[in-house]
Amino acid sequence: MKFASIRLIASDVEGMVGFYETVTGQRAEWLAPVFAEIVMPSATLAIGSAETVALFKEGSAEPSANRTAIIEFMVDDVDAEFDRLKGKAELVHEPKMMPWGNRSMQFRDPEGTIVALFMPATDAARKRFGVL
How far is CA 88 from CA 18, 23, 40, 82, 126, in A? Predict the structure, then answer.
């Protein structure tokens, strides 16, 4: 089995895609007017409009309803990313050390999902992620 992607359902798919293009610095590939993907080396972030839910099962997912997942991106410099993104999203917390050895910041995407940017900061965390 290979982990392939996380899909977000958005009421404003163009706005969400633009937001994640800004966060990741990567252009999305629009596979349909209602669906785009941002392909990264480790996984894909897929973004579909609310109308795509009916293709699976009506009502099985809804925009702006996620309070259980955190989408995480490992970056080289959390503080630089904080400065770059400050004022472009609702901040959850500024960069700080986490007990598991990462320096992390969190904000919300336009639909309310938490997005974390982190960097392994301790020797143990760098080893865990293969960052030397």
Answer: 12, 9, 22, 10, 29
pLDDT tens readout for residues 3-50:
899 999 999 999 999 999 999 999 999 999 999 999 999 999 999 999
Alpha helices in the chain, H assignment, sequence order: 13-24, 53-56, 78-85, 123-128
Query: What is the CATH code for 67-132?
Result: 3.10.180.10
Residue 54 DSSP SS3:
helix
Per-residue pLDDT band for 2 (boundaries 50, 70, 90) equals confident
Q: What is the pTM of this model?
A: 0.92
- For the chain, the domains span 1-55, 67-132
